[in-house]
Write a structure and sequence with these properties.
four-stranded antiparallel beta sheet, alpha+beta, single chain, 2 domains, 10 strands
Length: 263
């Protein structure tokens, strides 16, 4: 039986095998695909970024890692091209790497989630994973902005403040919008912990970070043809949808009932 590596050993193994510097998202994906760890938590990319950044911050020259650019790293001993003389980052860039990006404004978001992958009750399971294999997070109680789609067309934009995301979406399954949408996207403000729980809404936000966050939401939601990249604030916080277990149970129950009816 293969022994599960620590995060540090897994990171070093991935960087040691790479012929180029890697962004922490790619490091995480390789750890998962190579099955170096089974216990990933809910935010594995944030864990990888935090561990490397903390090592560089606290160990300095004794850290085995080099920060090549924002979010991109290499091993000092790896002989990776471009790692010998990395560019000097500004204090703002260093600080933004040390604190996981999700906690600045947008903590998490999901794009074009399927309506039929959720069992719609008053408090539905809105399940998403940061990477395949990570612990699913239930975003039912998330707060922020959401969009409803008919196919690819945005037909409604709403906000969740006094009522949670799950409750607002449930209401749209029984109100005048009920027959008009089949997918939804959402952008949340509550931070996500490594255990998959949602934190509290910050009391205030840095005004200088609000503008890029709003830009990022609009680019991601509207997909303008002339914008060549997504907003900077959404680099590591997208969650892919997981099918609600309630849906799977219904399918199994229906299959069993159909089989019994044919006996």
């Amino acid at each position: 039986m293969r022994t599960e590596l620590t995060w540090q050993k897994a990171i070093e193994k991935v960087l040691g095998k790479s012929t180029r510097p890697l962004h922490y998202n790619e490091i995480t994906e390789r750890i998962i695909s190579d099955e170096l760890r089974k216990k990933l938590g809910a935010t594995p990319a944030a864990t990888v970024n935090a561990m490397i950044s903390a090592s560089i911050k606290h160990k300095g020259e004794d850290s085995p890692y080099l920060r090549i650019s924002k979010g991109t790293f290499a091993l000092k001993s790896g002989g990776v091209p471009g790692a010998a003389t990395p560019p000097k980052l500004t204090p703002d860039e260093l600080e933004s790497d040390e604190e996981e990006e999700q906690y600045e404004i947008i903590s998490s978001f999901g794009m074009f989630w399927r309506r039929d992958a959720v069992e719609w009750i008053r408090s539905p399971n809105l399940l998403g994973m940061q990477q395949i294999g990570a612990t699913p997070v239930n975003f039912c109680k998330q707060l922020g902005i959401y969009l409803l789609y008919d196919g690819r067309e945005v037909i409604y934009v709403g906000r969740t403040t006094d009522r949670s995301l799950g409750q607002r979406l449930y209401e749209h399954t029984i109100d005048r919008m009920s027959a008009r949408w089949d997918r939804f996207s959402w952008f949340g403000l509550l931070p996500v912990s490594d255990t998959g729980t949602l934190g509290s809404l910050p009391e205030q936000y840095d005004a200088a970070k609000l503008i890029p966050a709003l830009e990022a939401i609009l680019i991601e939601a509207l997909e303008p043809r002339q914008n060549r990249k997504r907003g900077d604030d959404l680099a590591a916080v997208e969650y892919v949808q997981s099918v609600d277990p309630g849906i799977e149970k219904k399918k199994i129950k229906a299959t069993v009932s159909e089989a019994l009816s044919k006996l």
